[in-house]
Design brief:
The complex is a heterodimer. By secondary structure, chain A is of the alpha+beta class. Chain A has helices at 31-39, 46-61, 123-126, 253-269, and strands at residues 68-73, 87-88, 93-94, 96-98, 102-104, 107-109, 116-118, 135-142, 154-156, 193-199, 204-209, 212-217, 228-230, 241-248. Chain A contains 4 helices and 14 strands. The two termini of chain A are 37 Å apart. Chain B has helices at residues 8-14, 38-41, and strands spanning 2-6, 18-19, 22-23, 27-28, 34-36, 50-53. Classes of the chains: A alpha+beta, B alpha+beta. Chain A binds chain B through residues 82-83, 86, 96-103, 111-116, 148-149, 151, 159-161, 163, 165, 167, 171-173, 180-181, 183, 233-237, and chain B through 1, 3, 21-27, 35-40, 54, 56-57, 59-60, 62-65.
Chain lengths: 276, 65
Amino acid sequence: MAKLVRDTRGRILTDSLGRNLSSEPPHKFNIEVVKAVSKSVKNPSYSTLLHLDNLISALKSEGIWQKLDTFINCAYNTTNTTVFSLYDFIRDINYTSYGGLDYVVYGFKGNSVDGYLDTNYNPALQGVNYTLNNAGRGFIMIQGDWPGQNITEAVDGNTARNRTSMNIGGSSVQRINSEPGSSSTVVDLSGDGLKTINRYNSNDIMLTNKNVETSFIQPSSTVWSENQVVLKTQTLYSSNTLLCYFMGSSLTYEETQLFRQYYNEYLTNIGLEPIA
Amino acid sequence: MKVAKITSEKANEIRGQKCGFSHFNPVQDKDDNWVISLETAQFLDENEYELIDWQPKEIEDENND
């Protein structure tokens, strides 16, 4: 068994997460994880934090993390980390939960009645990487079981101007920085896994549903000034389960697949099914 | 699925107030009753709501702006 490390006065030294140091080399956590732990009373287990930290390191090494303006992770294979799951690792603030969301081992499950998350992120005011003609958002979801209630989106609070729809059978209303009323190719984002929408310039949009890529042209309009919300539309609420959510600049198809790969490794490492 | 029917006055009173890790979010069903989910109704007194079946509003036209 490794010996504890003490200073010259005999006090046990701790690492950046407050754990006692042993003679083994300590793991150096990303500052984002250290800040998250310092803000929450109920944290994931140390081993889960290690896997989360490795996920963040992997995303950083691929340059994906640097493209994000906001990122929460909700899947910790425990039901005791509700507040920790609202923590935005990029912005160092929390998302706000409304209504009766259920917190399960995979994350926040919508109740089809009144539950949703407010990201407290307004890209017009707080966007750094997210700009009019280079913008993206994505999320990993488990499809809910309420027929007709599976519209799960990242939308602004009152309109359908920024919409990512998971309608079974597809939707022609997939929008990012687009004019109200603009249509898209019918894109089916139903099912479990990672969904992303990416705007590369004033015209070109690409969506991914797991490894399926769909591109179309939709002119940009403006960066709408409203908070993005998740698990609701204008009036409907989702029954889906949110594992993670992010916004920032656009991701390439290859980056979306790397995101899936690393997130699946994370899920497997914490004992969950790799559904990304 | 059951939900908790509340008065419009109660809906205005509790909207946005904290309940556990979340916040009250009263919504209207297809008959325009104000309701909240049972997960959040547990933070009210039992005499402040009535259990009714959940009947969501009609599916919105997703092309609405």
